[in-house]
Structure formats: structure tokens, C-alpha cells
Amino acid sequence: QARLVESGGGLVQAGDSLSLSCVASGFTFRQWNMGWFPQAPGKERDAVAWINANGNAEYADSVKGRFKISRNNSNNTMFLHVDNIKPDGAGTYFCVGIAHMQEAPTIWGQGTQVTVSL
Fold first, then answer.
1. pLDDT by residue (tens digit) across 9-48?
2. pLDDT at 63
3. Which phi and psi angles does 23 have, rounded to 5°?
4. Beta strands, E only, 8-66
5. In this structure, are residues 69 and 84 in contact, taking their beta carbons and an 8 Å threshold?
6. What's the pLDDT tens digit per position in 90-99?
7. Shortest CA distance to 89 belongs to which of 11, 4, 7, 5?
8. 67-72: strand order across its sheet
9. What is the rounded CA–CA span in Å between residue 9 and residue 90?
10. Fewest 10 Å CB contacts: which of 53, 54, 68, 81?
């Protein structure tokens, strides 16, 4: 059974850096595209960063220059590093697996909560 487990969330101050991790199991991680879909309170989940099976990363315009997605296929782990986190960066960050780019994710983690204080 495919499973994604996020970690690294918590309380940070606006302007701080934050690193999240996602450990995959139950599927061939290196063959999958992966992404991060944060959900702010009261809003829809929205893709901010994704990385294909070859390691090529793309970002939403709103986070370019501050977010960095990466992956380590040897230990089935994906990462998100955030610099200068903003108050609207608060929310639940979901790690996702995407079988084909441009399609909806089909594997979801349970999410890790990020709270940003001013």
C-alpha cells in the first residue's frame, strides 16, 4: 500500500526558514513525480512545488526563490526547504505522488502542520 509520511512542521516565526520531509513507502518512489500541496486555513489545497522523476523542479510563481524542493531516491524521501516564510505560508503541507505530470495527485500524505507567528 502506497504511503507518504510528512514531518518537520511546527511553529515558526515569519521570516524564518523551515524544512519539511516526506518519506515514501509501498510504491516505486524513484519512478514517481512528487509535489507539495499546502492548504491554508479556509482555502483549497494548492500546488506550490513539484519535482519529476528525473529531479527537475518547478514552482508556483508565489514561492519562486523562497521554496526549494528536492528528493533522495536512495532513501525514498522528498524535501521542501522554505526560506523567509510568510504568514500566508501557514497551513497543512501535504506531500503527494503524481503518476503523470499535469494530472491530479493520486497518493496523499496525512499532512504536517505549519504555524507562522508574526
1. 999 999 999 999 999 999 999 999 999 999 998 999 999 9
2. 95
3. -105, 130
4. 10-13, 18-25, 33-39, 49-51, 57-59
5. no
6. 999 999 999 9
7. 11
8. 3-7, 18-25, 77-82, 67-72
9. 10
10. 54
